[in-house]
Amino acid sequence: MSVRFCSSCGLEVSGQASGAERPTPSPAKKQILECPRCHASLRMVPAMGVAVVVRDSPRGKEVLLVRLDADALVGRGLWCLPFGNVEWGEDVRDGTRREVRDRTGLEVEVLEVFDVQSNEGPESHAVGTWFHARPLDPGAEPSPREGVDRAEFFPLSALPAELAFSADGRVLSRLQRELGTDDAARLAVELEAARADLERRLERRRENYRGLLELYTNELMRGAWVNELLLALSKTDGARAVAVQAATHLATQRDVDAVRVWLPGPPDRCEVCPWAQQCLRDRCLHLVARAGKNEGTGDAAEPPAEDELRIPFSRGLPAADTALKNAIHQAELPGAGARPARFEGFPLDVGASHPGTLGLIAPVPLDQNARRLFEIVARHVSALVRNARLVSDLQSANKAKSAFIARMSHELKTPLTAILGFAELLREERSAAGDEMGADGAATIESSGRQLLGIVESILEIAKLESGAISMSPVRADLGQLVYAAIERHLPRASATKLSLVFEDPPPRGAAIAWCDPARVERILDELLLNALKFTKEGGITIYVRPGDEDVVVEVKDTGIGIAPEQHERVFEPFTQADESIHLDYGGLGIGLAIAKTLVGLMGGRIWVDSALGAGSKFSVLLPRTARA
């Protein structure tokens, strides 16, 4: 029994015997063969491949023919083109190469389809395909194999007179007509084919170049967009402002429809959280910014939906985190509904125990380049939010500290004023009564009270300076004359401690004019001279004024204990001294140099120190000659 195959669904069906044993149906009763599954026509084999193998030789074009052996059912002892049945599911080209190799021993390359015909008539439904092929080794000679008596190449001008199959005769006649033309016409055809092939290749290359150019342009635009975003973020203060700026900028990208930024919120906001029973109060994400192509930012007048304000943590993971990466919107994503879009969640490491989320709503999944780009943006947003929160915390702590110091200083100053008043009255009364011991005690109380009042006033002043509650009245002033006045104020104390206080090489009057507040400059000089007198036991203090073209420098040099180089910056910090042991030996709060530095900065100048342990110190103050922006 032969095997037939359905030409539509490929079902294998048993049929009648093939060859001479198969009865021929009469025209009156034609045998109809169809597939029992899909009722399409059946055929003996899936396909049949025939190879038209042509090679160049000194005799011209030659074609490979085989002579069938005596066991062949049809065409025994006659010449034909190499052929063979192709197995079901096998590629016809591969089957043709296999049949040529099995029948002639030659390896060939199948180039193109040459002809397609019905080989045995419509009742057999067998279709043959003739492929144009060429041998891989032009010098190889064929040798007869399975089912073949002889195999050799024939010139197209000397083909055998009788062929086994009429279809082969038609194909070879066509081959003689096409390959027997003159060289000029054949060359023209080949050139036209080569030109068309070259045109196709050039068009494909143009398409590739256009694609690469578009990709390169997109990457450049993305890079410029990232730089613009980072520049805008660097000018933004506050965690919320950073989130709003990032959301607004990200929503302008063509890959993004909308942006949501959630950050861990304070516990007090969770008192009305709809998920209060499902998550810990300190593990809620709060919506701080939103933006879209057709909506405003989180500062818009229209408030977000209630379920969009907070996102609870479920099983330790936020619902709007990367667990929904590349997933269709679910109910956990607020405001999504059933709209077919995708959510991309990028964690924001904002320094809390749980990260925030930068959520991007996109119509299609993001490609790798866009994903890497948004990861970079998320890292920068995280860093800026952390810094903004840190600055806010530091500012709050500094304000609380300044407020506390100012309040305590004010509370101390009120009773001190009364103590000083009564001490002065007591001293005068005891002096008038001739009680010297009582008068000295009252004087001691008054002196100590005034010293304490000076400390309190210094603390109040440093608090005012830090809070900015102090005003300047700059004018053009002669620093040389201000130095003379400072020396007169501090000369008695220097003489009492047997220290010299010298103004070295004073400039002429009017040569050291600076743009400054004279009252503040006097305070700066007082603090520098008091500091020098305190830490100098022998030698003296020398003051220099060095006028320049744009600035004037005042130097206060002493022969005191000196300052280690690593402590040069620290001595200008409030309530700080170079060494804790200094406080035990010399006393003081360590705020004089801090006041001097703040006042110099407010006048547009700067202050620094050059010193070493045991070698004295030189403090330099630079003030501008003209007003600076």
- Can you tell me the CATH topology of the largest domain? Heat Shock Protein 90
**Percent of residues in β-strands:** 15-25%
Proportion of helical residues: 25-40%
- Radius of gyration (CA) equals 51 Å
Return residue spans where pLDDT drops below 50 for at least 5 consecutive residues: 15-32, 121-125, 296-301, 313-338
CATH class of the largest domain: Alpha Beta
CATH superfamily of the largest domain: Histidine kinase-like ATPase, C-terminal domain
| Count of domain modules | 6
Cα-to-Cα separation, first versus last residue: 106 Å
Total number of β-strand segments?
24
* Assigned CATH architecture of the largest domain: 2-Layer Sandwich
The total count of helices amounts to 11
Report mean pLDDT, rounded to a whole number. Answer: 75
In short:
This protein has 629 residues and is an alpha+beta fold.
What can you see in these coordinates?
By secondary structure, the chain is of the alpha+beta class. It has six domains: 1-44, no CATH class; 48-177, Nucleoside Triphosphate Pyrophosphohydrolase, CATH 3.90.79; 181-229; 236-366, no CATH class; 396-467; 475-624, Histidine kinase-like ATPase, C-terminal domain (Heat Shock Protein 90, 2-Layer Sandwich), CATH 3.30.565.10. The protein is built from eleven helices and 24 strands. The protein has helices at residues 92-104, 166-179, 183-234, 239-250, 306-309, 368-432, 436-467, 479-496, 518-534, 580-586, 592-602; strands spanning 3-6, 12-14, 42-43, 47-57, 60-68, 79-80, 83-86, 108-118, 127-135, 148-155, 258-264, 284-292, 310-314, 317-318, 327-328, 342-348, 356-362, 475-478, 500-503, 513-516, 540-547, 551-558, 606-611, 617-624. The strands form five sheets. Strands 4, 5, 6, 7, 8, 9 and 10 form a seven-stranded mixed sheet that branches. The chain has a seven-stranded antiparallel sheet with strand order 14-13-12-11-17-16-15. It is rod-shaped and about 160 Å long. Mean pLDDT is 75; it is low at 15-32, 121-125, 296-301 and 313-338.
